[in-house]
């Protein structure tokens, strides 16, 4: 009887410690995600202030800064390059392996935090959401290790999912993202861990930041007859553009075509060239293509007054190789493509059509339709359009899969897994 009680007490202790680690990790990463969001906004405000005083300075500063950022990244923290989500996907496989552990280490997360802010400080077209996923996974993993809890793939996935929840202030999107993107199998233990982490990080974000809307409130709805026509067109158009965008990113890293292969051997020079391109577009567009693009996307949805070239321009300046996510730029570029769609249907509410274009392109890039529906409906308060959003997302996912069979983040994760396995 005494032995049975000791076993029960031991099991209770293990379960309590694991849940305490998940709860404390989720609260911590929620606080860090909020601080990261504010720092990112501050960095973009500082850049906007500098451009208002020295409008042509980015033509020199941005290329030089991009070259320096990529040099620092490749020299001291190669695991922090790019979005951050591929690293979490790769790090969830055999998380105890030394090289894969580096993908979600606190050291890597620290570099990711600072370098992403540096990219935004010089006008880079980068989002903070992907980096938040990697930083959050690192915090969740560190919390479990500190408390002596066994490290599993579920811990990494739960941290990344909680990062999505905190970054977008949308808890449901965190759960959906874990199912669609981070996890290859949906197990009961994973479900409990993810939902617990997402709930806690979401409560922190909602409690401290409030129920804010990134893109403003949009309560217009397209008509039924309009939806029957617009949804498939937005899905095909967005899925095609998003699929081409994803395929271009994956092809750049994998092709053996000599000119591209030569460019890959000179990452610093390539970063400087991308920085110059970003600066030229930013100056020429009057600042519309700088940064993550939230303000421009919000203006498109609320006032519909942005030029038709904004979407393609935003797609071009997002490709740099520096630390930073593509979630926000993809949403912004999608809003730009939605502007084009709105001109095709002048009798329908322009904001509603823009949102359908936004989800079409966003799903075309990330291939996670359920996540996209939750994110966009929550960020625009457009829950009355949920059926139209779902329909567009399903079409876009199918079209994008035809254009680019491999999902973007999983394709990018292969490089991190390969380098980790080669080093072991």
Kindly describe this structure.
- It is a single chain.
- The protein is mainly α and 424 residues long.
- The chain folds into two domains: 2-209, Clc chloride channel, CATH 1.10.3080.10; 224-417, Clc chloride channel (Orthogonal Bundle).
- The chain is 76% helix and 0% strand.
- It has 19 helices and no strands.
- The protein has helices at residues 2-53, 58-76, 85-91, 98-102, 106-121, 129-146, 153-168, 171-182, 188-209, 224-254, 258-264, 267-284, 294-303, 310-317, 327-344, 350-366, 369-380, 386-403, 408-423.
- The chain is globular, with a radius of gyration of 21 Å.
Sketch the topology as an H/E string, one letter per element.
Answer: HHHHHHHHHHHHHHHHHHH
Which structural class fits the helix and strand makeup?
mainly alpha
Mean pLDDT: 84
Multimeric state: single chain
**CATH homologous superfamily label of the largest domain:** Clc chloride channel
- Report the sheet-strand fraction: under 5%
At CATH level 2, the architecture of the largest domain is Orthogonal Bundle
**Rough shape?**
globular
CATH class of the largest domain: Mainly Alpha
The first-to-last residue Cα distance is 47 Å
CATH topology of the largest domain: Clc chloride channel
Question: Could you give the count of β-strands?
Answer: 0
Characterize the biggest β-sheet: none
The whole-angstrom Rg is 21 Å
* Whole-number tally of structural domains: 2
